[in-house]
Amino acid sequence: MENHIEKLRSKSLLESVVDELDHNISYFIEGNVITVEAYESSPVRIQFITSDSLVNKASANLKITPLSDTEFRLEEESKAYSRTHKIGEVINFEGSQFTILPKAGGQEGSFKTTNTVNIRLMPVRDVANDYLNRLVIQKKGQAQDMLAISMVHPTIERTEDFLNKLMERFNEEEVNNKREVAENTTRFIQERLEMITTELDSVEGGIADFKRENRMMDVSSTAGMYQSQYTTAEQEIFNLETQLALIGSIEELLRTQENYQLLPEAGVTEGGISGLTTSYNSLVLERNLYLRSSTEENPVVQAISDQLDSLKANLFESIQSTRRSLNVQLGELNQRENRAQGQFSNFPGLEKGMRSIERQQQIKEQLYLFLLQRREEAAISFAATASVARIVDPAYTHPSPVDPKPWLILVGGFIIGLILPIVILFVKFMLDSKVHHKGDLAPLIKTIPFLGEVPRVAGENEEVIQVNDRSPLAESFRILRTNLAYLMKAKKENRGEVIFVTSTIKGEGKTFISYNLARTLATTKKKVIIIGADIRNPKLHRYLDLPMETKGLSDYLYDYDLNPLDIVTPSEDRNIEVDLILSGTIPPNPAELLMNDRMEALLKELSQSYDYVIVDTAPTMIVTDTLLISPLADTTLYVTRAGFTDKKLLDFPKDLKQQGKLKGLAIILNDVDYSKFSYGAKYGYSYGYGYGYGVDKESKWKRLFKKGS
After folding, report:
1. Under DSSP, is residue 85 helix (H, G, I), strand (E, B) or coil?
2. pLDDT tens digits, one per residue of 459-497
3. Which residues, including other chains, have CB under 8 Å from residue 216's CB and lie 6 or more apart?
4. Sorting pLDDT into bands at 50, 70 and 90, what band is 61?
5. CA atoms 251, 255, 256, 261: torsion sign
6. Which residues pair with 646 in a beta bridge?
7. Is it the case that residue 701 has pLDDT exceeding 50?
8. How many Å is the maximal CA-CA distance in the chain?
């Protein structure tokens, strides 16, 4: 059964079936929605004039669009081919010649109304490989002696034809293999019969001449008195000589025939020669089967060839050993015969010669009759060769589709649609450790005032507020300004407010908050100055498009000849006047510079001239610069950033508050998504920025969606 399965799956067999059924040519009709295969119902047929050897290797995708009852347009997109041809015209395309003909039996005028037909031509080998991948062969039955062959394919008729033709060709090849052995046997026997007939005629002619010369008519009556004594020995000698003659014939055939040809089954029973001959023929058939789909370089073919060479050598050795054995037996029998004949020493030598001639005649007659019998058996075997496999049921199609299963798709889609979003959201929330909205700051704002939220700035929006700015960004800073006014304590001394802006780590937007807060405070006609105190990583200069080497804070701290006016850069924006002190040259010892008295003196002097002194400081967790000058601040604004600041870092400003290292601490949440604003959202105003500023009127669908949410 395993051998049958392998033969059914052989590429040579599959390719021959595909070639015979023309399954390498497919017809598809383009519909309004889908394209379906027209296996037997195609309105056109392609007929190749080129030889099959070229067609079976070709690949093309042809589109036939009828223009009239006699003309059509032929297109091949990959080859940029588009021409008009007539029905029956010989078309030359990529080295192939073919004609397009309408299907026989079609009504007159039906061709021009046909939709576009797509003819797909594929190599036979590729189609056979596709069928091989789809083919399923399973053992069935209680004794596992039946095979169930199945294949999943979208075209019913194509699949049924293929499976039926596959079994038909399988049986044909097996029958042909058996008949080939019978033909070779018959041919060998016929050659031997012709030779034996000649030898038999010669022996019988010799008997007639012997009797004529010696005037003898009846030898049997003369030899009757002693025949019974050595009849047994003669019979055994006859059998041995018959075997020797057959062995000699087989040996001669082995030496004269070409390599790896089938051997006749001559019926030699001595020395295991018959069994070796059967094994040799089986391997020859198996080797020929593999050579149909491969070459002699195939490792399997080479292995079988090696086995055949070994078997042939074994046959020669078996023939030699059998001949020696038979000769030994024949010598012994001859001695026995000689002893028997010695008892009849008085019998004339004439009788002895006659018996020798008669013996040769009997040998030739027996061999002749034996070969006649074997020839008849081979003829009967050739004529009565039966199929290897009997088909119980021809190919049939299941009434319901095997695939796809609608209920499985619907259930799977429902389960995936229900579970997958939950899993994704769960994983996202479990892995997300960032701050996103005010609620995530709840552990922090229990002890530290929350000043406000700053919305995310879209890529096309301006990140610096302007005069009469009505953007959500400007409104959020106005709210910060209002909340800051409530946070700041009344000052007994007549000086400006010193406000530090810091953060935990870099990238949380403290420079952005500092600059826009300064501009917002300046719109109230207050004098505002902003100091870039992050002298390790200056960022303030980018808002003025000034070089980093511009004199600033670091230059003032180490150069005692400079005074504050030397490092103040007036604002170029006359509508919002904000003076700036840039960070200056990056020093090698920022901490030591900030610890000297000039920083304190600078802030005191500036607070006498300005209403607000905003200091953009370094991150508190990364460096110690901010903590060194924190006692000089009246208010410290601590910036966190949505989607950037880790929740684990919120304990750091809380510890600084408890340790008293930062004065007047307040929290700002920067870069908040509009949908996650806390202020006004619970009242249905979504921060209230659209009110009264000419914002576009919301559509009815948006209002309904907002009510529903």
Report:
1. strand
2. 667 788 888 878 888 888 898 888 888 887 655 567 888
3. 210, 222, 350, 354
4. confident
5. positive
6. 434
7. no
8. 172
User: Is residue 628 within 8 Å of residue 635, measured between CB atoms?
Assistant: no
- CA–CA separation, 422 vs 436, rounded Å? 20
DSSP string, 370-387: HHHHHHHHHHHHHHTPPP
Nearest to 45 by CA among 103, 113, 92: 103
pLDDT in tens, 409-449: 888 889 999 999 988 888 887 887 888 888 888 888 888 88
> Nearest-CA neighbor of 251 among 152, 350, 321, 337?
321
Distance of CA 566 to the CA centre of its chain: 71
Residue 322: both structure tokens together: 């059998």
Angle, helix 11-21 to helix 156-214, in steps of 10 degrees? 110
pLDDT at residue 386 in the model: 59
Tokens of 514: 């500092």
Residue 369's region, left for phi above 0, alpha for psi from -120 to 50, else beta, is: alpha
**The pairing of beta strand 60-66 with beta strand 71-76:** antiparallel
Confidence of residue 67 (pLDDT cuts 50, 70, 90): confident
Specify which residues 498 forms β-bridges with.
613
Q: How far is residue 419 from each of residues 184, 407, 429, 432, measured CA to CA in Å?
A: 71, 18, 15, 20
- Beta strands in 456-548, from DSSP E residues, in sequence order: 497-503, 528-532
Q: Which two tokens stand for residue 619?
A: 């991150």
The H or E element that residue 447 is part of is none
Is residue 586 within 8 A of residue 529, CB to CB? The reply is: no
Contacts 24+ apart (CB under 8 A), 171-179: 171/387, 171/388, 171/389, 173/7, 173/13, 174/7, 174/387, 174/388, 174/389, 175/385, 175/386, 175/387, 175/388, 177/285, 178/381, 178/385, 179/382, 179/385
Query: What does the alpha-carbon distance between residue 276 and residue 321 come to, in Å, rounded to a whole number?
Result: 14
Long-range contacts made by residues 570-575, C-beta under 8 angstroms, separation at least 24?
A: 572/544, 575/466, 575/467
pLDDT at residue 363, as a whole number: 80
Report phi then psi at 80, rounded to 5: 55, 45
Answer for the pair 277, 265: CB distance below 8 angstroms, yes or no.
yes
Q: Do 518 and 614 form a contact (C-beta atoms < 8 A)?
A: yes
Under 8 Å between Cβ of 480 and 452? yes
Per-residue pLDDT, averaged over 101-117, amounts to: 71
Query: Is the per-residue pLDDT at 626 higher than 70?
Result: yes
- Residue 390's pLDDT is what? 75
Would you place residue 677 in the very low, low, confident or very high pLDDT band (cuts 50, 70, 90)? low
Crossing angle, helix 349-383 and helix 224-256, to 10 degrees? 50
Interatomic CA distance for residues 354 and 192, integer angstroms: 26
Q: What is the 3-state secondary structure (H, E, C) of 17-29?
A: HHHHHCCCEEEEE
Question: Cα dihedral sign for 223, 225, 230, 236?
Answer: positive
pLDDT of residue 181: 72
Task: Provide Rg for the chain, Cα atoms.
Answer: 54
Span 385-404, average pLDDT: 74
Residue 25: beta bridge partners? 121
DSSP 3-state assignment of 51? Answer: coil
Q: How confident is the model at residue 502 (pLDDT cuts 50, 70, 90)?
A: very high
Q: Give residue 614's pLDDT band: very low, low, confident or very high (50, 70, 90).
A: very high
Closest CA to 602 of 513, 529, 676, 673: 529
| pTM of full prediction above 0.70 | no
The conformational region for residue 492 under phi > 0 = left, psi -120 to 50 = alpha, else beta, is alpha
* Cis status, amide bond into 404, omega within 30 of 0: yes
Nearest alpha-carbon partner for 39 in 29, 48, 26, 30:
26
Please give the Cα distance from 641 to 96 (Å, whole number).
Answer: 70
* CA pseudo-torsion sign 244, 247, 251, 256: positive
Q: Give residue 213's pLDDT.
A: 66
